[in-house]
Amino acid sequence: MDRYNDFSVEDFVWDDFFRQWALSPTPETHALWDDWIDANPEMLEKVEQAKAIVLSLRLHEPEIDDAEINQVVKKTVGRITEAGEENIRQPGRRIPVFSIPWMQFAASVAFIVLLGWAVYAVMIKGDEKPQSAQGDTVIEHHESFIEKVNTTSETLQLALSDGSRISLAPKGRVRYPERFDGQRREVLLEGEAFFDVAKDPEHPFLVYANGLVTKVLGTSFRIKAYGDSREVTVEVKTGKVSVFAQSDPHLKEKVEDRQFQGVVLTPNQKIIYARNKVKMVKTLVERPEIVVSKAETPQFEFEDTPASEVFDTIARAYGIDILYDEALLKDCPLTAHLDNQTLHEKLDIICKAVESSYEIVDGQVIIHSKGCRN
Predict the structure, then answer these.
(1) CATH class of the domain whose range is 294-369
(2) Backbone phi, then psi, for 207, in 5-degree steps?
(3) Does the domain spanning 134-284 belong to CATH 3.40.50.720?
(4) Comparing 96 with 209, which gets the higher pLDDT?
């Protein structure tokens, strides 16, 4: 949160994380901002003014960050500041309510936002661009970029300079450097795509998609980030990924750090990111797949096998965590052939046989049991 220490009112108004807190506060973000204000009491007035402006304008969408609009805002604020100083130099003069600097700023921003949305609505139909991180401040500069749009009804296969591959779904759009010559490999996505990323621990691979950043070193995963959807999903097939919001106040540190930060996902796990609530829910993919090699894949044929051993076998095969009370389940024998069932069907059959139930919490399977009746 240190980056907010020198913010002006207009800086707060245009900041995604601040607007999301002002419009859709959560207990976590509320506590975060309260703590910061307590540590920086001199910023309280600016925060209150900026919050009042955001609430009055209802800036629900964070995408309006056009450089020209920001430039107009700065010029407007400059004129407002001059007007405010002139009022201070004339203490005997009665100041109308609308002449109060921050009220003028609110009116100016309202006009700018309406103008910006009008321009945006026209331009987005002709030449939409995938969204990047806040103000592109963390994306490295490259001499030339390649932009691909899938206008067909088939998946478009793309090969990147580092050996990575992208399977771009219809109506999807990606933008990436012609060559990855910086510290990071960065791609901007709008729509849906499957990524098969070449391993390179020294150069993390990052995908910016509709408010969410996905960071990997070398793995395969799918991202769904449609512009008209309030949700972004990331599903991991192999390896490990970390995800975090572009509005995260520690975005720059998380992007530049070669270690994993944020929410970490492993095979068969996925994250659902609610953009309007800045909330992430970790769960399992709809149809988990076996992640071990064919030679290591068990037959799933059990004959009077303890339920605890059955759950361990399934957990290893699918690369997931199955948590249970071993003392309760070690004496619960199971006889079943589960070769052709999905993971959820396997769990349903096992739980019914040993008088248990299960739920998925934070990408893990939790087994609830009271033991078996002999």
Answers:
(1) alpha beta
(2) -120, 125
(3) no
(4) 209
